[in-house]
Write a structure and sequence with these properties.
This protein is of the alpha+beta class and 752 residues long. It has five domains: 121 residues, no CATH class; 77 residues, SH3 type barrels (Roll), CATH 2.30.30; 126 residues, no CATH class; 236 residues, 3-Layer(aba) Sandwich (Rossmann fold), CATH 3.40.50; 134 residues, no CATH class. The protein is 33% helix and 21% strand. It has 19 helices and 34 strands. The strands form eleven sheets. It has a seven-stranded antiparallel β-sheet. Helix 9 packs parallel to helix 14 and helix 12 runs parallel beside helix 19. It starts with 5 loop residues before the first helix and ends in a 5-residue tail after the last strand.
């Protein structure tokens, strides 16, 4: 047991408060008071011991209750839950006599005592009106030092001491290398210095935390990065490049113009930049074109955003937009890339995922005929093919999923493989029609038969829908996006066997084949689907045309002499060029570093998105995110089962059954009502949970939708975790960062 003193006594102030409040609120019954007092007093010594333990899994929350971490041993968890039950009873009694609410009493009591907890006790502290964080009382105080990371400028140095004259321990830093901030100081000249490490700096530091210190970087050579928020430009294909402005007000002035005048002004700006004009008022640069094939992440850190607190919602032609301050590399002078060219040896892999049940027998023959014709025209290695067949889980079928090509093959070899692929000779009596479509697509996404750094496209061919289960449309789309694999779907409609399911099949195929124009999950969707009548003899010709289209695009890429051609939305060409723009590194990597304001919408066409933001998370943060989403899912599951009473007040359920802390019980939406980790509630975008209201669970269909959404997010996190060793997914933020310090980008729609 820890010796009792003034500081540690405060840890169990709830029991002590009973003495004073019993005097002020005589309405309390003696039995209520005595039993509650004895109960809390009996666990006081153990409570102090658990809270002060070096590996404590408990903390003091701003709502007056204990934080119980998901990895707490069952014994401690049960002990803490008993304490929380008594604290809730205390808050309820106090609220009843004071004419207040239980939430308000808990919040007031916690904030009154939080600064008196001894060092080592985890306590939730308030950073702003709507933002909180956890702190163990050890320096630095996050309320005074909000910067947890800094980004280096080009050729910056890290010094042994906070002094320009001290030894340089690392020289010639790359642009935007990220370092964790351990401490900061000010030298005699008033200049700021940051003490930095390449290790991950946790918000809640273990007692034995002792990171390897690199040294000190001067504030003049570093950019404070308060949020681990980055953005990427959406695929530049088919849209005008974005423009960086010196101030948000300059951007707003342009946004407020009518569409015709705005477009005219944008044309003038781009023309002047092309000509190398340096006198543009408020205009800094044009969007860069860069490749993404580096080991170290290429990122555009988001430094700030034009906040809603400024009192003005940014609208372009009636559509909501956001202005972000971004650190980026850009092209000087006329190197704007308006005539976008791509060049390089970029192979294309097409993997068929095809229904091989009896009804698909004639279409399998047509694929063979198309491949034979194509092999006679072209037999190079630019385009290669693979084949995965699927049938159904029913044991009467020959297999559920089968891979026929261990690696992708040239057309001539693929023809030989196809001759050995046979559709089932007879149908299965009593079959329920839906087949293993999703399992086949999943096998393709998980397959290692793809060539490295190839354009990867799945040709999905079938007439029946998939069966929703653990694997579903949403989880497959998330996985395809993470793996940078696109799907082009061929749906055979009016089949005698599955005609009644055509609409379900078509919807599934369209969703599976859709890509997002901008930010993943939130922007306009573009489907890549062909519907073919079962009675048509044109299917084979359509397949052959797609083969030829891919071959022509391959020639375009390796030729490199022509600007990208205009292609039809929803075509195979569009999918190829979307990947080509990402996979082929731009040799003229821009060198100029700028900080500027840019709009997340295409200014000349605000219906399109120009930026896609994401948040960078360490493995520990991803683990914590997963636990929080599990908590949210569980309250949805409990609501569906009718557990925990009849209340369907979403905020009440979240407050009582999760570790989200309510900061404003009167708030209308989740963003304002709760403090959310990782600064999600401070981001300039609303996730699906942030906009939720108290009435979120008043409709059972909405509750089911909520549970499905949380389940899909959890599957996505698990997929990211399984790819922990993939350097293309988990990135380093600095050249010397260790393997355990890698981070992963999570799209904002995947956050709670």
């Amino acid at each position: 047991m820890i010796p009792m003193n003034r500081s540690t006594c405060i840890l169990c102030c709830a029991a002590v408060l009973l003495l004073s409040f019993s005097t002020h609120y005589p309405a309390w019954g003696a039995d209520d008071y005595e039993s509650l007092y004895q109960s809390m007093k009996a666990r006081q010594a153990r409570m102090e011991s658990h809270l002060m333990s070096p590996d404590s899994c408990l903390g003091e929350r701003l709502n007056g209750l204990l934080e119980i971490n998901y990895d707490c041993p069952d014994e401690i968890k049960q002990f803490a839950e008993a304490e929380n039950r008594d604290r809730r009873t205390l808050h309820a009694l106090m609220a009843e006599d004071a004419g207040s609410t239980e939430a308000e009493v808990g919040k007031e009591r916690a904030e009154r005592y939080q600064n008196n907890y001894p060092q080592g006790v985890l306590r939730e502290i308030r950073l702003s009106a709507t933002q909180t964080t956890w702190w163990d009382g050890l320096p630095p105080d996050p309320r005074k030092t909000l910067v947890s990371r800094v980004l280096s400028l080009q050729y910056a140095r890290i010094h042994a001491q906070p002094d320009d004259a001290s030894q340089a321990v690392r020289d010639n830093l790359q642009l935007y290398e990220a370092f964790g901030v351990v401490d900061k100081t000010t030298d005699e000249s008033g200049d700021t210095w940051y003490k930095v490490t390449e290790e991950y700096v946790p918000k809640i530091k273990p007692r034995d935390w002792n990171p390897k210190i690199l040294g000190w970087i001067p504030g003049k050579n570093a950019i404070p990065w308060q949020r681990a928020l980055v953005m990427r430009f959406t695929n530049a294909y088919g849209r005008d490049p974005s423009i960086f402005f010196s101030k948000p007000e300059v951007t707003l002035e342009l946004i407020r113009k009518d569409p015709a005048r705005r477009k005219s002004r944008l044309d003038i700006i781009r023309s002047q930049i092309m000509e190398g004009d340096k006198g543009l008022n408020g205009v800094i640069a044009v969007e860069p074109l860069v490749g993404s094939g580096q080991e170290q992440i290429i990122m555009y850190p988001v430094l700030d955003f034009y906040s809603r607190e400024n009192g003005e919602e940014v609208l372009i032609d009636g559509m909501s937009a956001r202005l972000l301050e971004v650190a980026a590399q850009t092209r000087p002078g006329n190197e704007t890339g308006d005539n976008k060219k791509i060049q390089g040896e970029l192979p294309i892999d097409i993997l068929f995922v095809m229904d091989t049940t009896n009804s698909m027998k004639p279409y399998l023959q047509m694929v063979l005929e198309a491949a034979t014709s194509f092999a006679g025209e072209e037999n190079g290695n630019g385009i290669q093919f693979g084949f995965i067949g699927y049938q159904d889980k029913n044991t009467k079928f020959e297999y559920e999923v089968k891979t026929f090509t261990p690696q992708t093959q040239p057309a001539s070899s693929f023809v030989r493989t196809l001759k050995g692929v046979k559709a089932r000779e007879k149908g299965v009596k009593g079959d329920d029609i839906p087949e293993s479509v999703f399992e086949g697509v999943d096998a393709a996404l998980e397959s290692d038969l793809w060539r490295e750094k190839s354009v990867k496209i799945i040709f999905l061919v079938g007439d029946a829908p998939g069966r929703e289960g653990t694997i579903n449309v949403t989880s497959l789309r998330d996985k395809a996006y993470t793996r940078k694999i696109n799907i082009f779907a061929f749906h055979i409609q009016n089949s005698k066997v599955s005609k009644k399911f055509d609409q379900i099949s078509k919807d599934q195929y369209r969703k599976l084949s859709s890509t997002y124009e901008g930010a993943y999950g939130t922007s306009r969707e573009i489907g890549h689907l062909l519907s073919i009548d079962a009675r048509s003899a044109d299917f084979g010709q359509l397949i052959l045309e797609r083969f030829r289209e891919a071959q022509e695009r391959f020639r375009t890429i390796i030729g490199g002499e022509m600007a990208l051609p205009s292609v039809k939305s929803g075509s195979v060409s569009e999918l190829i060029f979307q990947q080509a723009m990402l996979l082929l590194p731009d040799e003229s990597m821009p060198k100029k570093s700028i900080r500027g304001w840019v709009c997340d919408k295409v200014l000349s066409n605000p219906g399109r998105e120009a930026l896609a933001p994401m948040i960078l998370l360490s493995e520990a943060e991803l683990d914590e995110l997963e636990q929080r989403v599990k908590e949210l899912k569980q309250i949805g599951v409990s609501a569906l089962r009718g557990e925990g009473g009849t209340t369907l007040d979403f905020f009440d359920l979240v407050s009582k059954n999760t570790r989200f802390t309510m900061v404003d019980p009167a708030a209308v939406n989740f963003r304002d009502a709760f403090s959310v980790p990782w600064g999600i509630d401070q981001l300039p975008y609303d996730s699906d949970i942030m906009a939720a209201t108290r009435e979120e669970f008043h409709n059972q269909d909405r509750v089911q939708e909520f549970v499905r959404a949380m389940s899909n997010k959890l599957r996505h996190y698990e997929d990211l975790r399984r790819r922990r060793g993939d350097a293309s997914v988990w990135k380093k933020l600095s050249t010397g960062a260790g393997e355990r310090d890698r981070v992963v980008g999570v799209e904002l729609n995947q956050l709670p």
